[in-house]
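Handout, tutorial session.
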Amino acid sequence: MSSSSNTSIAKRARTKAEADFATWLMMAKLGGFDDLPSNAQSFLTNYRTRLETMSEAESTALAVREVYSAYYSEMGGVGAAPELKARTPTTGDKGVRFQSGPKPRPGLSVARHSTRPMIGKSLSALLIFASMAALIVAYRFLTQ
């Protein structure tokens, strides 16, 4: 198997491991530990045991590494799972910014802008309903 194939498998395994571990951890915190698959329960039990001797960040990183290694071999990776750089959270101006909704168009008053779309939407729905009813009546009339 080629190196690029192993790298591709490693990236997919790492992404899946991070997502699955976060999901399992959340489910366990919400009281769904018993509903998890046995392998997930095993990883979480090891994670909880390690929390007694190390920080949460270290324990989480180690747990994700274990899940990643298991997924890597399940996905067909050859040999030991390669070390991939862990994703680091972004800080400062490089983070994701949430955008607000669309800005009102200039020149429209607030009252006109807020009521006009509602009338247009209900009128459109009424026209669609009336058209559908007319089509059904016409179809029944023509088929009899």
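The second record follows below. Compare its token runs with those of the first.
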Amino acid sequence: MAAVDLGSNSFHMVVARIHHGQFIILDRLREMVRFASGLSSDGYLDNQSQDKALGCLRRFGQRLHDMHAGNVRVVGTNTLRKARNAYGFLAAAEAVLGHPVEVVSGMEEARLIYLGVTYHIGSEPTSNLVVDIGGGSTELIIGEGREPRRMGSLSLGCVRLSNKFFRTGRLSRKRFDRARLAAQLELRPICATFRRLGWDRAIGSSGTVRAAAEVAQQMGLVERGVSLAAVESLIDAMIDARHVEDLDLPGLSPDRAPVFPGGVAILVEIMNNLSVDSMDVTDGSLREGLLYDMFGRMHHHDPRERSVEAMQRRYHIDGKQARRVETTALALLEKVEGQWQLDEEQVRPLLRWAAMLHEIGLDIAHARYHQHGGYLLANADMPGFGHLEQQLLATLVARHRRKLDDMSLDELPERWRGPLLRLIVLLRLAVLLNRTRSRVTQPDVGVICGPQSLQLLLPRTWYAENPLTQADLGQEQAWLQTRGFELSLGTLAAVQETSAS
């Protein structure tokens, strides 16, 4: 199994195998890409940064070349969340890696970090504060054992803060004071809540905290981990150096030095504002969290399932109706997935989740409830889901009924546009065929499909017994036609007679 983390400062890859439920690390690769430095003020990644990143991924891709797609997860974080031209880069990245790239939300990044940290330190039932200062964002999580209770993701990272306050390389008390104030302002909205919840142990993860701990230990400021007093001493030492190029701190690598001042300014304010006197340091991080998350999915502990079930409860979804629609939708998918060349591993769970949540918007209003549902799913925190998965799910739910002539799939990766339209068709038909919300078992449904067409075959007597659904299917033909998709209706008896002759 392999996990790849496209961070805002460094790209990481870890390859491991599972032995008796534990991971044995086989390979680690890391390159300092400093991706966030290429993000302009108007939100566009420059060509130089993209080229550097793709060069790194091309090297990673060689290691991943023969690995099964289901055993590899690649995630992008803050810089790709913010980049307005991310889709173009993602298409190129997927081409050189040979595997899809998920862009995860800040909350999902925090969940995966906590998972990686707690598996690394063990599952003692203690309350933990986990701090991860990345290149573009900072994640703070409070949890009990392996379960996160409160998560925060701040637009505050070592690359971003260093570029803003130390771009020229000059190090002064005044510049550090400004950087620290900026960090305080970002932290202020979450500090009261985090302090109220409390924790037994503070743990630092990722590059900045580990680098600060390494330097502090080599300077003799602490024996283990990192303390608030030691971090203040690191700032004094940097101010004495006066310039990044003159930093000569033991244990600080040359490629870390340009972003170290910004990272330490964030760390000292986290410790100050949350009253953390000392912090342990761990090697567990996002990429280890990805490995354990993949392992959980393989063994039916998928956090996406829990997210969908939680949304059903929160928005009072009629579970029986959801299951009826799910059963019909998956039965239709089974009949067409071969001819439509749909990847069952990718589309089946997506269609099933959409069926389970298609009525989520009814808790707001019946009018345009499909649109309400799409909005909720596009904007909710759903642990386990990447941005693209959530966008696909939201689009399915938002388009499961009514007109389609204003629908645009242009914002989606090209590889998903055709398959998603076909899934929309299947979900719409499943909803129509269960409109009566009847407990009566649905009749066998036959289908004949082409690239942009589907003929729905039902028993001859069914049409006479279900005039409302027959009228709905007639309207559906017109709505699908606006998308260039042809829906036709036939009877199973007619097809059987034709086959016999």
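Points raised in discussion: Residues 2-103 form a domain with the Nucleotidyltransferase; domain 5 fold (CATH 3.30.420.40).
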